[in-house]
Amino acid sequence: MDPISAVSEELAEIEGQINDIFRALSNGFQKLEKIKDANRQSRQLEELTDKMRDCKSLIKDFDREVKSLENGNDANTNRMLNDRRQSMIVQETINVGTDTSAALKAQTEQMSRVVNELDSIHFSLKKASKLVKEIGRQVATDKCIMAFLFLIVIGIVSPNNKDIRDIPGLAPPAMNRRLLWNRY
């Protein structure tokens, strides 16, 4: 028979619940290390934190029950109960530390992914900026070419331009050209 069961069935029940939570926390922390998705890690951490709150509440209940039974027990029983309580507190402290460490690890990994995304965005922005500058230069070059072509066309087509010789094989430009729709 468990020594705590001999002292109080309620203490034994509380201790059993605490031990169940400690096992669940241990399994939860092992699962957490295997999870790579930040959202799933966050949910798992919330679940573990809730279990730790429950455990803390049960440890307080255990402590209250130990204090209520303290006067009716001998010194060895009180020492054994206090040792169990201290052991639970130490285990709870270890679990909080593990939870904190896991949360920090998950956040560090998430920050690393964010930094990588920012680097990728920065690189993309640099490439886009270079591309915009190149397109701007091409547009400016195209506009210059179009302006020169416009000037050439104006110089060639101008009816007052007598310096341009007729091109052999082509008829000279008609000076008094009438459009078809003006005939009628």
From TrEMBL:
Keyword field: Coiled coil, Membrane, Protein transport, Transmembrane, Transmembrane helix, Transport
Location in the cell: Membrane
Coiled-coil segments: 38-65
Xref: PANTHER family: NOVEL PLANT SNARE 11 (PTHR21230:SF27), VESICLE TRANSPORT V-SNARE PROTEIN VTI1-RELATED (PTHR21230)
Biological-process GO terms, alphabetical: protein transport; vesicle fusion
Keyword Transport: yes
Domain of life: Eukaryota
Residue ranges constituting the T-SNARE coiled-coil homology domain according to the UniProt record: 90-135
Any one cellular-component term (Gene Ontology): endoplasmic reticulum membrane
Single Gene Ontology MF annotation: SNARE binding
Main localisation: membrane
Membrane topology: Single-pass type IV membrane protein
The protein, known as: t-SNARE coiled-coil homology domain-containing protein
